[in-house]
Amino acid sequence: MTNLGRGGLLAAAAVAAILCAGAASAQTRDVNRLIEQCLTTPENHPEAVVVDACSLLIDEGHFRGRADGNQRLAEAYLNRSLNLVLLGRHEAALADVREARRIRPEEPLSYYVEGLAYMDLNRDPEARTALNAFLRERPSHVLGLHARADLHRNAERYLLALNDLDVILQMSPGDLRALTDRGYIRMLVEHWHLALPDFDAVLRQTPNDDQVLSMRSTTHANLGNFDLAVADVDRAAALKPDNITYQTQRCWTLAAANRDLQAARQSCERAAAAAPDAFITLNSRGLLGLRQGRNQEAWSDYDAAVRANPGSSQALYGRGLAALRLGRTTEGRADIEAARGMHPGVAPEFRRMGLLPEAG
After folding, report:
1. What is the pLDDT of residues 9-66, one digit of tens each?
2. Contact yes or no for 261/291 (Cβ under 8 A)
3. pLDDT digits (tens, 9 = 90+) for 348-360
4. Residue 241, C-beta contacts closer than 8 angstroms, at least 6 positions apart
């Protein structure tokens, strides 16, 4: 053994103390870094990073002995559970929610995360129960209201969804997500005149939102404002030229407006090249065929559209018009009456486009 002497031992002890202090300082920095990664908002770090950081903190007991240890531990479980939901690991997320609730039963955020997990699992009753419990405690929580509105919309509880969105917009009239979602639901229930102001408000703030332009185009078309509908879908298609849905919509809208039918044909054929059997492609090209007097092609497209979506009154009515033009009167009238029975508004829709049974 080397004989360091008293001075050497003191020097060695001093060096060891410095090294230990440095290691402790590095360890503190590492723990602080893990806490920053774990107890963060989801957009600050990738989900997997947050999950790994929270797991290390939880598994190694870094919150033990701290005055706020239980609170921080519950937060770690909750943030890990939220990021597990985002990663699609729902059962693990629900296990974390239960553990967070065991540690801090008074924390309502566990119900929010639980609701998100059950939403992703398409378990509507459990998601609804959880989100209702959360919003009873936090009635002004915007993300909670958005989540419950989405849940109600997906279950076709449109009035309840609109109620939640109205609450958000009372607190924050410029909330773009709430305005967009409310306009979309108003479209779904065919309250076109109410949907339009919502889309207008969004596009005043974000004029290049292609999805909202597409929805406003549909709204204008259903209100009979075909020139405005064409302008909006042209902008959407220009912003996203490879979006086949916009090409199909552009074909249908130009045909409905009876404008630039050659451009409409180009858009339809472009969509058909990508998705030849898609209902929206067949339905749009069927309308274009009626406009261009290509009645047999129109009948064939509408017939394929009906087979792809038997519940479409629009395709059935269009097939009836094409059949009448081809002289197949009994067949055509049967389709038109069946379409009217499915949706009384289908005849006025074609009438706004100037397409009437008598025209055949």
Report:
1. 444 434 333 333 343 344 455 888 898 889 876 567 889 999 999 999 999 998 888 8
2. yes
3. 999 989 998 864 4
4. none
DSSP secondary structure letters along 220-242: HHHTT-HHHHHHHHHHHHHHSTT
**Cα–Cα distance for residue pair 307/95, rounded to 1 Å:** 45
Give CA–CA dist 53/323, Å, rounded: 66
> Are 236 and 217 contacting, i.e. CB atoms less than 8 angstroms apart?
yes
- 225: its two tokens: 């404002």
Residue 39 has a pLDDT of 85
* Contact by Cβ (8 Å): 212, 203: yes
In the chain, which residue ranges form alpha helices assigned H by DSSP? 5-38, 47-59, 69-86, 90-103, 109-120, 124-137, 142-154, 158-171, 176-188, 192-205, 210-222, 226-239, 244-257, 261-274, 279-291, 295-308, 313-325, 329-342, 346-352
Q: Which residue has tokens 């598994």?
A: 59
pLDDT digits (tens, 9 = 90+) for 192-225: 999 999 999 999 999 999 999 999 999 999 999 9
Question: Which of 105, 128, 104 is closest to 116 using CA atoms?
Answer: 128
Give the span between the Cα atoms of 36 and 110, in whole angstroms: 20
Q: What is the dihedral of CA 166, 167, 170, 174, to 10 degrees?
A: -70
